[in-house]
Specification:
It is built from eight helices and nine strands. The chain is an alpha/beta fold and 251 residues long. It starts with a strand and ends with a helix. The structure holds 2-phosphoglycolic acid. The site of 2-phosphoglycolic acid has 6 residues, from loops.
Amino acid sequence: MKLSIHPNYDAMSRAAAQCFAQQILKKPDSTLCLATGKTPLGLYQNLVDMFQKGIISFSKTRCFHLDEYLELSFDDPRGFFNTLNQVLFSKVDVQTDRLYRLFDTKRMIEEACLDYEQMIQQYEIDLLLLGIGVNGHIAFNEPGSSWESQTRLVSLSQTTRDRASAEFNPDPVPIQALTMGIKSILRAKKILVLSNGKEKAGIISESFFGPIDVQIPASILQLHPDVNLIVDEPAASVIQEKMEKHNAIKL
Ligand code: PGA
């Protein structure tokens, strides 16, 4: 794992955008897999800026996304695909027939998940972006998810639903979601993990510097051969404290 610690959110977002730009410049027809949530918004803004300056083009890329709430209407702005459309897809030159949407209507859920999983395997994700939940979830793989899990229907944990409640207020947060599985995520050739803020400091330390534990889904990333962990200083604070203690003992 490569770890880089940046002084603040903006610097972290720029570093993550550089990583995406390098991938797209090296392989213009890269298959990307994108995350939603608050963490990557700065990264997406940087990618839009780079596109507008003519530095990168998404015209040949394919884009998947990690997960989606169940039972939202097709155009609900709180849906993850629609969020990505608003912050990135609609602002760059990605071709709509190269966007892959995880969605539950029209087809049976199982069939939709299987199709999505087959597409992921067919196109092979070159670069996959992950945020990490405060409970260690990756995508919507909540604590206890099987390492062998593939794209499927899941129930959301109370922690995850509580954290989304402001966004859905006054509506209830969906109880279920569709998500790429842990095995589907680990198939990506390169994984970029992005995390910021003090509230993530504990889980970042546990995930990457503790035992691999099914109750901390992100901890399995320790076994992936190409993970780039990009964080800001507050998110790295527990790791840094541990390193300081370790060095003090050695001295
Ligand atoms: P956040 O979500 O970026 O909004 O913190 C991350 C996650 O839950 O995966």
